[in-house]
Design a protein that fits this description.
The chain has 398 residues and is of the alpha/beta class. It has helices at 15-20, 38-53, 57-77, 91-99, 118-129, 146-155, 178-184, 280-295, 299-317, 351-360, 382-395; strands spanning 25-26, 85-88, 108-113, 133-138, 161-165, 191-195, 214-219, 231-234, 343-347, 363-364, 366-368, 371-375. The longest helix is centred in the first third of the chain and has 21 residues, at 57-77.
Length: 398
């Protein structure tokens, strides 16, 4: 690794992904990040453990692998107790389980934003169609006032569940200070759920002050660089003690009641476990966190690296004067006191056209409607950005 500074050059640690598609410049890495080379050995280790142990591999998964990953997550998120972390193949599974914690005799009253990812948006909309939930949505934009507006609505009370993204997927803006958000809730019975998928390992995240109050869900597909199948939920003690949506893995540990009377649950995060899953994602996640620890890399470093790359991108694309890709087109302002995730989102009617043009020259970004997104992760180097800008300039030249 190069000497520590805002910009890192970790390309050598991603040699496998780079060699597999040498012409690709991955600026869609707010989505599928390149995986570091250590994940390949982890994937093989998962296979070999299955061959060696067969059904006994679950003793290793529950007894060694899960505690290892829990400890890494707790350290990065400053959680006081790693046992508050549960795992699942995807965050949708956790959303269903959370919703199943509420009484079934009336609609669940949910406060959220209009900037949530499709996982929550689609499921909540569908449940709303059948009257299973009632939804109050606060507009995410203008982003500069979102935190104030959302917290004011929280303070009004009357909600069973507050669900909001730490970083909005379609803009890069944030929901504001998590401690202030938790403090705005007048009832301790209201569940606060922070969707950290675009924030975890992208922004420094300190949950120590809200660990007893807020759920936090995220996963390895994005900035943790571990791929699919490794999602997690921090479960504050005493909240959601008996989800109706429950799997047999929640039958492990100290149960709250004997079998045959009522369904028992562990008192730790195991109460949110589901059923049999592919553990390979946890192997990869453990390897990534071991590598980050060995290199001394934190979420603060990842965010600083991305900020430096975003500044470089904006400064060097400005002279090209490409319609739709100027600072004025950014949905979330960059620089100053503006809080944001590790990607840039431009509003342009040409978003789909630009994505297609750039894909044809090996620069990967993506779009959602009129929003064009460029992402920057630990796998991205300054040279990647410079080479991408040459291709962008040539592909989009007027």
């Amino acid at each position: 690794m190069t000497a520590r500074g805002p910009l890192l050059d970790l390309a050598a640690h991603f040699s496998r992904f780079r060699a597999a598609a040498p012409e690709r410049i991955n600026l869609a890495c707010h989505s599928h990040h390149d995986w570091p080379d250590v994940t390949l050995a982890a994937q093989e280790r998962c296979w070999m453990d299955a061959a060696r142990l067969a059904g006994d591999k679950w003793r290793l998964v529950f007894g060694e692998l899960m505690p290892q990953v829990q400890a890494h997550l707790a350290r990065h998120l400053r959680l006081p107790d790693p046992a508050t972390i549960a795992f699942a193949p995807n965050t949708h599974e956790f959303l269903r389980r959370l919703l199943s914690c509420f009484p079934a005799d009336r609609p669940v009253r949910i406060l959220t934003s209009d900037g949530e990812f499709h996982t929550a948006r689609r499921q909540l909309d569908r449940l709303g169609e059948d009257g299973v939930v009632t939804l109050t949505r606060v507009p995410a934009e203008p982003l500069a006032t979102f935190a104030e507006r959302f917290q004011a609505t929280c303070a009004g009370g009357g909600h069973d569940l507050v669900f909001v993204s730490q970083v909005f997927f379609n803009s890069g803006g944030t929901c504001g200070d998590l401690a202030s958000l938790a403090a705005a809730l007048p009832s301790p019975d209201t569940y606060l759920v922070i969707d950290g998928y675009h924030g975890f390992m992208a922004r420094p995240t300190d949950l120590s002050g809200v660990a007893s109050r807020a759920f936090y869900l995220a996963g390895g597909y994005k900035y943790a660089m571990a791929g699919e199948g490794a999602c997690f939920l921090h479960c504050p003690p005493g909240h959601g003690v008996r989800p109706r949506d429950t799997g047999w893995f929640a039958d492990f540990g100290a149960l709250a009641a004997p079998a045959g009377k009522t369904v028992g649950y562990p008192v730790d995060a195991g109460r949110f476990l589901g059923a049999t899953f592919d553990p390979s994602g946890l192997y990869r996640m453990a390897a990534v966190f071991d590598w980050l620890a060995a290199e001394g890399i934190t979420a603060c470093d990842a965010h600083g690296h991305a900020q430096a790359l975003m500044a470089r991108f904006l400064d060097r694309i400005a002279p090209r004067a490409i319609a739709g890709l100027g600072r004025a087109d950014l949905i979330t302002p960059f620089g100053g006191d503006a809080a944001h995730g590790n990607f840039l989102t431009f509003r342009t009617a040409r978003a789909g056209e630009i994505e297609s043009c750039l894909a044809a020259v090996g620069v990967h970004c993506d779009h959602r409607g009129d929003r064009l997104r460029f992402g920057f992760g630990l796998c991205t180097t300054a040279d990647d950005v410079d080479r991408a800008l040459v291709r962008i300039g040539d592909a989009l030249a007027a």
